[in-house]
Amino acid sequence: MSSFQSRTSSLPLGGAARNVAGAPTGDAVAAAFPRLQAMIDSARSKTRIGLVYPCDALALQAAQNIVDHGVARPILIGPRDAIARAADSAQIDVREFESVDTPADPRATAQSAVAVARTGAVAALMKGSLHTDELMSAVVERGDGLRTETRISHAFVFDLPRYHKLLTVADCVVNIAPTLETKRDILLNTLALLRALHINHPKVAIVAAVETVNPLIAATVDAHAIARSAWDEAVVEGPFGFDNAISAEAARIKGMTSRVAGDPDLLLMPDLNAGNILYKSFIYIGGGECAGVVLGARVPVVLTSRSDSSLARLASVALAVTAVRAQQVSRPINA
């Protein structure tokens, strides 16, 4: 079961809300998060991304921002009349955008967008003003959706003021209570993304409540099983408590010997509850910013929230473009 299967306003979809007191905005945001800005700069491309149901001013402003920064080429997929009304509100000339006219119903639009993606006409999808479950239900539909043999998962890539490099966290959005096999798929999906980001031989900390294996805490048992597997292109260790995953000193004090402690590239979370809480803590308390993308489908999917900053939206599209490049190396988009 996935979190998008029930509509809820509390889902952590997209990037950072800018509610932290004194948080920078505009150009200052980009200057405050140079690692995400570098990712945006390196992703500049003509990659075609389907913006699904862009029927409010915010979605069309995002499309214009994507074009202005040269990150990708948005294709507007939605009912022409509703897009035109939103364009008037946003004072944006949609004649400059390629578009695909669809029925007015958001779910029908989502199905149309998935059909467009299946042909290879767009290499990624981005949520517009429809609900997340309306888009993702079409994505995961058996037969006509965008499923692959791999479990669909989500990854956030964070730029944190007090951490020395990009830090990826998975899964905070899609898989509520992942099994051991689902956690392996989440890890495989995310490792492919890290390779596309040129993070070679990434260090992975599998996080649980404690750093010792306790049969009563299933997450520690799963972490031990995953860490014992062969991972040729990554250093995978666990279980870790969050403290000794992030702090080498905390690990040293607890007598841990680790190649990952204090320097992880990826935190593999035990479940959505833990991932959700950590994600929001990084943003609202830690003052971080992030990009997010759905992985494991035939095309990457960007899920944005109305509370996302413009940097988070751009960085999420850049992350999707990066994921597209990784897919194109391994297989055709319309395979």
Sheet/helix structural class: alpha/beta
| Biggest β-sheet strands, sense, barrel | 6 strands, mixed
Poorly predicted residue ranges? 1-25, 331-335
**How many separate structural domains?**
1
Mean pLDDT: 89
In the CATH classification, which architecture applies?
Answer: 3-Layer(aba) Sandwich
CATH class category name: Alpha Beta
What level of helicity do the residues show? Answer: 40-55%
> What is the count of helical runs?
12
Find the CATH topology: Isopropylmalate Dehydrogenase
SSE series: HHEHEHEHEHEEHEHEHHEHEEH
Oligomer: single chain
Radius of gyration, whole Å: 19 Å
CATH superfamily: Isopropylmalate Dehydrogenase
Describe the protein's architecture and organization.
The two termini are 26 Å apart. By secondary structure, the chain is of the alpha/beta class. The longest helix has 21 residues, at 310-330. The protein has 12 helices and 11 strands. The protein has helices spanning 27-32, 34-42, 57-68, 80-90, 106-119, 132-140, 180-196, 218-228, 242-246, 248-253, 272-284, 310-330, and strands at 48-52, 73-78, 98-101, 124-127, 153-159, 167-170, 203-207, 235-240, 266-268, 289-295, 301-302. It has one domain: Isopropylmalate Dehydrogenase, CATH 3.40.718.10. The strands form 2 sheets. Strands 8-7-9-6-5-10 form a 6-stranded mixed beta sheet, with helices on both faces.
Key words describing this protein structure:
six-stranded mixed β-sheet, disordered N terminus, globular, single chain, 335 residues, Isopropylmalate Dehydrogenase
